[in-house]
């Protein structure tokens, strides 16, 4: 990864104009497509397969009069007037008739219509006009809402002064979140933090440019997706909030590292390439964890949540790609102007330490002075938030959480005041009455049974459809739609199903917007445990692979869980208990959005791993390079604390800016994320982590050897890159060698076993041949063809440094096996002929002296001859020292017996492999001018006589 990103960063730096033009062109093209193909956002929360959703879908066919979108107009008479008296009664009847003539209105019901109950308040001051529209909210749009609002205003104008009326219901549901000037505060704070951290106006502007561009592309893609998928209106806001935060942070990490490298004397191009390789690797890893967690939201099985997760994941992916391409391009535009100024020196000539280093040095000292005490205080302190977190209540949004002053909020409050909270969330029970002989009588009896259920306020309608095969009962619960007691009412109503089946023979289902919302919330609650296991399990696995440690991932995961619990606890204190609610702009306390927990867990997981990676990777790097365990903690902390602090402050600013104003849908998510980032960055990662690492000492980096062998290696610290760059011109600039290696060694499996070989030096120019034998010859060929990493030594295959560029070598260097126990592994005649037609730069042939028949022997000889003539280097593994018949006549070669190289390097024999040996172990200088071959002899025995034996 680091090698690939190094080359990518260098290429982006050099071709900066092209890279910038591509990103701008991409935004323009996608914007044009969105303008042509975009649809509308749809906030119809659905849960396919649930009882409520299936019943709601069936009503569209069996009872179209009550399908579609419902709306209400609540009318409150002036103080002292009776809503049932004139002029109110006539005005409301005419109002209902006029509404019935509007476009998309299926029916409008006057509160005085026969058979309608419960739509006039007990004090006779308020009445409800129910309207049923033909179509979903997203299909109706603003014109329908505006028409209803205008008709309501006209009604009020015709009634006595003091009359109140407001439209509401599903049509005016909380369907979106909107930007305001307050969100810009987060960007301004981010810029100030960037300016302070980077110390350059030009550098501080770069993360904002890249983040805004990435968010713009992500938003355009989301808008474009509305033409093909059902997209919730909360989706773009979530993507915007997350895309801004990670986009700024990811660019900051790379720019900060690049300026540090420039301060160390590297050229602007080299600094950009190395920063992209090192910090870019961490960005890719961190971004990948966020993406996986967001896509993992699909485990809930809820379509709108899956779309939200995928959309946010795409925005994060764009931020990652921009960070590793456009950021180095912008560094190219800045060039030497971004080089930090030399720091002031003391009188004694030493460099004056930076203020942030002194501050963070004191922080680290306090955190690790008594590490056990620090750990106990943090775990107990954060653990206390688990007490309020247990009371977290979830629900889908309703009009009670709408912004004050809107029709939706005014209507909700008037209905609750004059009718009761349950009228804002009516339930519907459907019944299959096709077997009934008295549909009207049976529906009346069913209504009486339902009214006897605890928590049911009243039944306002119980009627069959026109074909008398389906009946509906409209039920008003005693409690608000987001009250947890309403959940119990729904459960009790569904519990009537067996009794109704026995008494009437009807199949029933409970549905309606409130029931669907309850089912969605229940499904989300059930998904939390498997999603939590997924996230925590992923955390442990990924961090174990990155840090090669058991304790580091366990500690990181515990810290993540503490951050999540604390965020939940703060949300309960603010949104349930009302703490600081006025400051936060929370108009109404109560349940929070149902998908908050799963979204918080997913996003915070990625951000927590981000901070963990930047802090602990520095500690590991220092430890690997010889620092003591305690010293490594301090070095890693001081090297990363400032950039982690800046990143966290930016995250908190961006998330926090969405809290004071706007819809309740996003408030709770933004607050939870802001609190979670604060706790995770400053309390967990920058305080708990160094304390735990100091407490563990050397044990922090322990990993069982068997696990070390089977786990893949992620070089996020860039060790492999530095190794690759260090050997770029080794053994000499523009090296002519096809293979060059010094001190190569490989251990045998099993503790205490002798190495397969050790102290082997190899140097092969074009056209040269190496014949190897001995126990480890096959393993040597695997290493030279990029298929097996060595335990010791330095090795280059052409210009590729091993093992970092083993993938390239493996793709270009076929491993030819002349004879194998498995026929599928044996190179057949067709492959041998094909390779002879176009030999690779390095030809590697295992078991070259073991062809199955004379024809195969001839083809092997022809292949080696063709490779030598083409200027390829050839490495052959044979079973016997004298089996050299496949080497062309008049071609000298070097012989290597690996059984002579199975001792430790300091006791291995001298000259061995390569033309005249190849380096220190051979005792002769490396290079094209080295002396001649150690053994150039060959025999003249006929090839056919050697099959099955050796000369």
Question: Mind sketching the topology for me?
Answer:
Elements: H1 2-14, H2 16-37, H3 51-62, E1 69-76, H4 88-100, E2 105-109, E3 126-133, H5 137-158, E4 164-168, H6 183-198, H7 201-225, H8 234-263, H9 268-295, H10 303-334, H11 355-369, H12 371-383, H13 386-389, E5 394-395, H14 407-418, E6 427-432, H15 439-451, E7 456-464, E8 470-477, H16 484-495, H17 497-504, E9 507-511, H18 513-547, H19 551-576, H20 581-584, E10 592-593, H21 596-624, H22 629-656, H23 664-696, H24 705-710, H25 719-726, E11 739-746, E12 757-764, E13 769-773, H26 777-784, E14 792-797, E15 800-801, H27 806-812, E16 815-817, H28 829-837, E17 842-846, H29 854-869, E18 873-877, E19 894-897
Parallel strand pairs: 5-10, 13-18, 13-19, 16-17, 17-18
Antiparallel strand pairs: 1-3, 1-4, 2-3, 6-8, 6-9, 7-8, 11-12, 11-14, 14-15
Helix pairs in contact: 1-2, 1-9, 1-10, 2-7, 2-10, 4-5, 6-7, 6-8, 6-22, 7-8, 7-10, 8-9, 8-10, 8-22, 9-10, 9-21, 11-22, 11-23, 12-23, 18-19, 18-21, 19-21, 19-23, 21-22, 21-23, 22-23, 28-29
């Amino acid at each position: 990864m680091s090698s690939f990103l190094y080359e990518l960063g260098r290429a982006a730096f050099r071709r900066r104009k092209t890279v910038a033009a591509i990103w701008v062109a991409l935004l323009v093209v996608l914007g044009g497509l969105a303008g042509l193909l975009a649809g509308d956002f749809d906030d119809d929360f659905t849960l396919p397969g649930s009882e409520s959703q299936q019943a709601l879908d069936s009503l569209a066919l069996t009872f179209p009069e009550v399908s579609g979108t419902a709306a209400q107009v609540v009318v409150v008479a002036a103080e002292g007037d009776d809503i049932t008296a004139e002029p109110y009664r006539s005005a409301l009847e005419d109002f209902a008739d006029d509404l019935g003539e509007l476009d998309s209105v299926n029916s409008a019901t006057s509160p005085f219509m026969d058979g309608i109950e419960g739509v006039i308040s007990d004090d006779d001051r308020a009445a409800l006009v129910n309207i049923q529209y033909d179509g979903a909210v997203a299909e109706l749009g603003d014109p329908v809402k505006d028409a209803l609002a205008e008709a309501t205003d006209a009604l009020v104008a015709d009634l006595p002064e003091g009359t109140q009326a407001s439209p509401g219901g599903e049509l005016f549901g909380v369907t979106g979140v909107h930007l305001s000037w307050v969100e810009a505060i987060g960007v301004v704070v981010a810029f100030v933090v960037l300016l302070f951290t980077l110390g350059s106006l030009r550098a501080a502007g770069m993360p904002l440019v890249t983040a805004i561009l990435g968010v713009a592309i992500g938003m355009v893609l989301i808008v474009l997706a509305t033409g093909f998928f059902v997209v919730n209106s909360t989706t773009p806001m979530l993507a915007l909030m997350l895309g801004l935060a990670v986009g700024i942070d990811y660019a900051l990490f790379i720019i900060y590292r690049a300026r540090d490298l420039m301060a160390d004397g590297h050229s602007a191009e080299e600094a950009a390439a190395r920063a992209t390789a090192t910090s870019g690797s961490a960005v890719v890893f961190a971004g990948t964890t966020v993406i996986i967690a967001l896509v993992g939201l699909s485990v809930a099985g809820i379509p709108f949540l899956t779309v939200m997760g995928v959309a946010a994941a795409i925005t994060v992916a764009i931020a990652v790609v921009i960070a590793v391409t456009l950021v180095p391009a912008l560094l190219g535009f800045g060039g030497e102007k971004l080089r930090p100024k030399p720091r002031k020196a003391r009188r004694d000539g030493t460099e004056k330490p930076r203020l942030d280093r002194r501050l963070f040095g004191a922080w680290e000292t306090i955190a690790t002075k008594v590490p056990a005490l620090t750990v106990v205080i943090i775990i107990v302190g954060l653990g206390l938030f688990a007490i309020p977190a247990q009371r977290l209540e979830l629900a889908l949004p309703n009009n009670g959480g709408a912004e004050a002053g809107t029709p939706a909020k005014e209507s909700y409050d008037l209905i609750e005041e004059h009718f009761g909270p349950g009228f804002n969330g009516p339930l519907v029970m459907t019944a299959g009455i096709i077997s009934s002989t008295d549909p009207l009588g049976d529906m009346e009896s069913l209504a009486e049974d339902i009214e006897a259920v605890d928590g049911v306020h009243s039944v306002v309608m119980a009627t069959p459809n026109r074909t008398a095969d389906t009946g509906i009962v409209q039920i008003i619960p005693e409690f608000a739609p987001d009250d947890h007691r309403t959940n119990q009412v729904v459960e009790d109503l569904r519990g009537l199903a067996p009794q109704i089946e026995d008494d009437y023979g009807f199949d029933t289902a409970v549905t309606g917007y409130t029931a669907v919302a309850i089912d969605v919330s229940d499904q989300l609650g059930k998904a939390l445990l498997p999603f939590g296991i997924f996230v925590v399990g992923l955390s442990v696995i990924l961090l174990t692979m990155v840090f090669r440690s058991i304790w580091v991932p366990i500690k990181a995961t515990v810290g993540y869980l503490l951050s999540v619990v604390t965020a939940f606890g703060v949300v309960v204190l603010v949104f349930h208990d009302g703490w600081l609610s006025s400051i936060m702009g929370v108009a109404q306390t109560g349940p929070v959005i149902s998908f908050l927990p799963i979204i918080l867990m997913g996003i915070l997981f990625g951000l927590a791993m981000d901070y963990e990676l930047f802090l602990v990777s520095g500690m590991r790097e220092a430890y690997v390079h010889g620092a003591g365990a305690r010293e490594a903690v301090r070095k890693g902390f001081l090297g990363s604390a400032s950039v982690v602090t800046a990143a966290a402050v930016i995250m908190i600013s961006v998330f926090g800016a969405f809290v004071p104003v706007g819809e309740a849908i996003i408030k709770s998510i933004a607050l939870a994320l802001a609190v979670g980032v604060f706790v995770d960055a400053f309390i967990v990662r920058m305080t708990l982590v160094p304390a735990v690492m100091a407490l563990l000492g050397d044990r922090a980096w322990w990993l069982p050897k068997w696990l070390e062998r089977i786990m893949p290696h992620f070089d996020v610290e860039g060790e492999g890159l530095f190794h690759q760059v260090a050997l770029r011109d080794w053994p000499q600039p523009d090296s002519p060698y096809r293979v060059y290696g010094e001190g190569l060694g490989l251990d045998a499996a099993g503790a205490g076993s002798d190495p397969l070989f050790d102290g082997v030096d190899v140097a092969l120019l074009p056209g040269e041949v190496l014949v190897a034998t001995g126990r480890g010859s096959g393993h040597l060929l695997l290493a030279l063809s990029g298929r097996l990493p060595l335990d010791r030594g330095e090795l280059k295959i052409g210009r590729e440094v091993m093992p970092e560029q083993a993938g390239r070598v493996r793709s270009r260097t076929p491993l030819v096996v002349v004879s194998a126990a498995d026929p599928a592994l044996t190179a057949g005649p067709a492959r041998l002929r094909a390779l002879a037609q176009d030999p690779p730069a390095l030809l590697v042939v295992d078991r070259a002296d073991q062809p199955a028949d004379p024809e195969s022997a001839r083809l092997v000889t022809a292949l080696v001859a063709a490779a030598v003539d083409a200027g390829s280097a050839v490495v052959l593994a044979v079973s016997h020292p004298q089996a050299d018949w496949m080497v062309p006549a008049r071609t000298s070669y070097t012989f290597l017996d690996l059984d002579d190289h199975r001792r430790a390097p300091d006791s291995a024999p001298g000259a061995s492999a390569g033309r005249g040996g190849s380096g220190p172990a051979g005792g002769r200088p490396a290079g094209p001018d080295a002396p001649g071959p150690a053994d150039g002899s060959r025999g003249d025995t006929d090839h056919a006589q050697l099959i099955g034996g050796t000369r």
